Amino acid sequence: MTWQTFVFIPIAALAFGYSGYRFKILFRMMKAHQGKAGDRLKDVPARISTFMANVLGQKAVLQKRAPGIMHFIIFWGFLIISVGTLEQFTTTIHQAANFEFIGDPAYRALMFLNDIMSLGVLLAIIYAAYRRFVLRPEGLGKSVDANIILAMTSSLMVSILLMNGFHILGVQPWFQDAMPISRAFSEVLAGLGLSQDTNAILGGIFKWIHMLIVLGFAVYIPSSKHLHLVAAGPNTYLRTLSREKGMTPINFEDETVTQYGAAKVTDLSWKDALDYYSCTECGRCQDLCPAHNTQKPLTPKMLIVDLKHNMYRNKANLLAGKHDEVSHIVDENVTEDVIWACTSCRACEIACPVFIEHTNKIYDIRRNLVMMESRFPTEVQSVFKNMETNASPWAFSSEDRAKWADGMSVKTMAEDQNIDVLLWVGCAGSYDERNMKVLRSFASLLKKAEIKFAILGKEEQCTGDPARRIGNEYLYQTLAKANIETLNRYNVKRIVTACPHCYNTLKNEYKEFGGNYDVFHHSQYIAKLIGEGRIKPTKSLDATVTFHDSCYLGRWNNIYGEPRSVIQALPAARMVEMSQNHDQAMCCGAGGGRMWMEETLGKRINVARTEQALATNAEVVASSCPFCMTMLSDGVTEKGMKDKVRVMDIAELVDQSTP
Amino acid sequence: MNIYVCVKQVPDTETKIKLNADASGIDPAGIKWVLSPFDEIAVEEALRLKEKNAGSTVAVVSAGPSRVVEAIRTALAMGADTGIHVDLPENADTFMAAKAIAGALKKESKVDVIFTGKEAIDDGAAQVSQLIAESMEIPCVTVAVAIEYGAGTAKVKREIEGGAFEIVETTLPAVIAGQKGLNEPRYATLPNIMKAKKKEVKALKAADVGVSASDQKIRFKGYQLPPPKQAGKKIAGDAATQAKELVRLLHEEAKVV
To answer: A399, B16: Cβ pair inside 8 Å?
Structure first.
């Protein structure tokens, strides 16, 4: 024990004590949330595996090459250097308490890694600074917080190099040959011509500087976005595992529930709070957001930041359990325009390296606005009314549901239940003229393949998806339950649909209400029929085709290959990809109920996406979703390319090519 | 204030109206019934007036077969407090409906104002508002697009022919019939939908309000659907030829010029 022991222990105790106190507050704020987060612990093997891949392996972070590698080095560097830092602490408390007990080769290896990583991390931080101050990607924004962290981390690395450099000159430790970087550095320092004792003292001083910055870091972290250091690991472990996630149902039978959706941050769940803690404001979500990229006020990044700040502003109420006094979410930062701008395309969630879920927060906020406060864009009211009275977002009578099939002798389930598959038509296929043609092509294909199928006709109702995404869970459940009753009454087992929104709802969201079916999107079904040789496209298409990924097919259900394989099966079709494709694809602008809302702010999303399609010089823009069809057709018309570029559903392309 | 709203349940505009086998009436199967849109405007006006005057209540009155209670519940879900249902036969005419509603209102202790829609969208008769007022011997202002309330009075802006407006002042109680533009009816919040299921709807028989079969002034002899719409005709050629052909068709086929 030396004087250092007695100086270090109280400083460290104070720093860690204060840091611990701040963490406890963060934890208590998290626990003050009342919303349900679902079971976040089951399926341990999958959780461990995602932790290994995405925390230790940094897989999601590495989706972006250069910043990913930078982060990988910093992450592993800090883990390794922490061992060295711990040794500094223990030897400061008790000089002999070093880690040399692990034996020679192991200790040398540890020192080697520490040495290499201190330079690696320093270089990575220089790149980070270059990126932040010179490249300045838009999504990163400006941040004092980030600058402080950069200054701290770079000082940490420099102090380590100086510490080791002087230490080698002053003490000449037995393992110095395992530290090539520090040795080379010590040769530079030797040029100062200081005595051995002075070098030893300087080594000690830089050790102290390093330790003090580490303690400062511990104090600073809880109030910084670099809290992700602590939160992102658990957030990854506790993430929603399945890509095909349905929205959380509300139990309307439960009369103890008086609040539907989220009016206040505390109506959200503890997992949402952990999401805020995990956000390091990297801006990847914002870079891909179709709303942000067309000048809407929504950016997923700022939504998370604003929710976090809302929670911090309400800290006293949260800690005192005064839920009633917590201020509302919708305020001058998170405006109604922000909440309604979301197309629920989910690009933000797919881009997020720490698995923050943006969409569920927006859905919950919408639920409160719609069901509790009756606040939504005025044009939506008629959509709700139509769905209530006519079971369709558009004002048409159920009697006309089967009109699209006039003259095709398509049977209804009421007429014939001896079928291979039920064709779920959807409201767009039933009532929208352009999409009625798509349904006719698909039905014609099914007939060519000699598939026995039927439709529900006037018994089919809207799946409820638009109501649900807009926030009217009550209306959604009314429609869902009616449809499930009908489907179960006919003992339906297999369903095929040309609408990804219907597909997603039937497949992933009816389960919760007792509807379990084998559901296919028509791209999957056609791909299967081609694979089995039941459909043989032989007529040449002879055109350049680009395929637009529907969000509810791609990002929500991970179906990217089948529609492309269908196009590639067409003779002489030449596939070209748009600049944004697969899970990076840009939404057409119609999801999340936006199909039925006016788009008054910024550039139109469908036009922006159409421009990407036109940039490929394709003659055919292929779609696999009725809403994408409408949006892209409008976009092509708007760009004056209607005579040169055709927007076609994949079913139409295959039907044309199949004799 | 004791505020009253009279509502009618009508087939939704998208419903395909079909006649029953002997054409003696409309086939009720497959009809989607809704609260008449103009009556929604009346309910909204009543709710806004209530919100401005603490301690007010809104009661919804409807006359017809038992199904019309659904329309009353819709209004209750929007925020009205209680309902009154007068049981009348399916084909009750406007006179009988008005007499039944007025009879029910006369039984109430105090009526400060009565709102209605300017007409029901099924028969489009636009008579019941005036008939209620007549029966209760109070003023009636129809086609209201804006209302300003004073002490025991109301200044009403009403739409008249030729796209013009007139402003009239009336004492209250009065019947005020709302026109589109008076307000934007609200969408019921879920807590209100839940509460509406438990709100009281008073059930009255025709006899309770002094209505008998002799109050049916109109006898329905039969029903007919309008002839199906003919396909349009496209006239080809240059402007002069098109004009010439159009005049010929209007003269010879349509016989209007």
So the answer is: yes
Give dist(CA A343, CA A150) in Å, integer: 35
* Side-chain-side CA neighbours of residue A374 (13 Å): 14
Structure tokens at A451: 């598939």
**Residue that is written with structure tokens 């109420």 in the block:** A317
The closest CB to that of B187, out of A258, A381, A395, belongs to A381
Between A and B, how many CB-CB pairs are < 8 A? Answer: 40
Q: Do B193 and A474 touch (CB under 8 A)?
A: yes
A531-657: in CATH 3.40.50.10700? yes
Contact B114, B5 (CB under 8 A): yes
Name the nearest CA neighbour of A425 among A397, A459, A451: A459
**Helix or strand run (H / E) with residue A625:** none
Strands B57-64 and B2-6: parallel
Closest CA to A299 of A310, A285, A279: A285
Top CATH class of A265-372 equals mainly alpha
Distance CA A245, CA B172 (A): 58
Q: pLDDT tens digits for B31-74?
A: 999 999 999 999 999 999 999 999 999 999 999 999 999 999 99
Tell me what ipTM this predicted complex has. Answer: 0.88
**Chain A contact for B14 (CB, 8 A cutoff):** yes
* Percent of chain A with pLDDT strictly greater than 90: 98
Which letter, b or e, does each residue of A25-36 get, where b requires 16 or more Cβ atoms within 10 Å of its Cβ? ebeebbebbebe
- Identify which of A372, A381, A389 has the shortest CB distance to residue B190: A372
Chain B contacts in chain A segment 389-428 (CB below 8 A)? 389-390, 395-400
Q: Closest CB to B189: pick one of A371, A396, A398.
A: A371
What residue has token string 């592993």?
A76
Q: Which helix (H) or strand (E) element contains residue B53?
A: none
Residue of B nearest to A382 (CA): B187
pTM, entire model = 0.94
User: Please, are residues A263 and A527 in contact by the beta-carbon 8 Å criterion?
Assistant: no
The arithmetic mean of pLDDT across residues B148-173, rounded, is 95
- A418-449 per-position pLDDT tens digit: 999 999 999 999 999 999 999 999 999 999 99
**Separation CA B183–CA A631 (nearest Å):** 32
Per-residue pLDDT tens over the stretch A234-272: 999 999 999 999 899 999 999 889 999 999 999 999 999
Average pLDDT score over residue span B116-120 = 97
Around A404, how many Cα atoms within 13 Å sit in the side-chain half-sphere? 30
Mean pLDDT of the region A183-206: 95
State which residue of chain A sits closest to B190, comparing Cα positions: A371
pLDDT band at B253 (very low <50, low <70, confident <90, very high): confident
Quote the CA–CA distance of A263 and A329 in Å, as a whole number. 6
Domains of chain B: 2-215 (3.40.50.620), 230-257 (no CATH)
DSSP state of A342: -
What single letter denotes the amino acid at residue B208? Answer: D
**Predicted pLDDT of residue A46:** 97
Q: Do A397 and B15 touch (CB under 8 A)?
A: yes
Nearest partner of B29 among B42, B15, B39, B43, judged by Cα: B15
Q: For residue A433, count CB atoms less than 10 angstroms from its CB and return exposed for 0-12, middle for 13-18, buried for 19 or more.
A: exposed
| Yes or no: domain A387-529 corresponds to CATH 2.40.50 | no
Strand partners, B170: B154
Backbone angles phi, psi at A348, to 5 degrees: -60, -45
Residue A229's alpha-carbon distances to A66, A269, B59, in angstroms, are 20, 21, 60
